[in-house]
Amino acid sequence: MAFDLTAVLRLNDAGFTRGMRNARRSMSGLRNSAREAVTQLGLITGAAGAVGVAFLSAKKAMDFESQMSTIKALTGATGAEMKQMSDLAIEMGQKTK
User: Fold this and answer.
1) What's the pTM?
2) Residue 66 carries which DSSP code?
3) Is 93 within 8 Å of 68 (Cβ atoms)?
């Protein structure tokens, strides 16, 4: 006795394809979020650097004024003499850097 069997195989990949599309959308969203986070981090880092530079500049100016006040107290120099010394200190500082 012989039997002939015929089978029909139908694959339905709709679920798989839908899942892959969702995964691709999620990855795209993640990539965009990561780019935005990196951009924000760059802005924050730049702002922090600017604040640091401003702070150091202000500190140097205060240190300079403090030193000039000490010189005035020790030497008893007049206002005009202190102006000359201050101008000379700034000029020499520019030449040595």
Assistant:
1) 0.48
2) H
3) no
